[in-house]
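Recall the central idea of this unit: under ordinary conditions, the amino acid sequence of a chain determines the structure it adopts. In this exercise we apply that idea directly, starting from the sequence alone.
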Amino acid sequence: MTRRARIPRNGKTIREVAEGTGLSTATIERWTSAPREDYLAQANEKRAQVQELRAKGLSMRAIAAEIGCSVGLVHRYVKEAQEKKTA
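Accordingly, the structure predicted from this sequence is:
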């Protein structure tokens, strides 16, 4: 499979772009989503950032604000790391 560049949505939702272009939401999602390898690499980078900031003593809210994600995502990454340590 060839790698393709992600087409930006410029702040619009998938539904807004689909309605504006007359294409399906599935097509817009496929065209605008990052390739899986890139997505996973970014997620692993965020996991590492969360662990580093947590080790420095930052709260989950502070970490979320620092890396620009939700508190729920930070909590999930912290919980995953704790489960790996106990496994």
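The longest helix spans residues 36-55.
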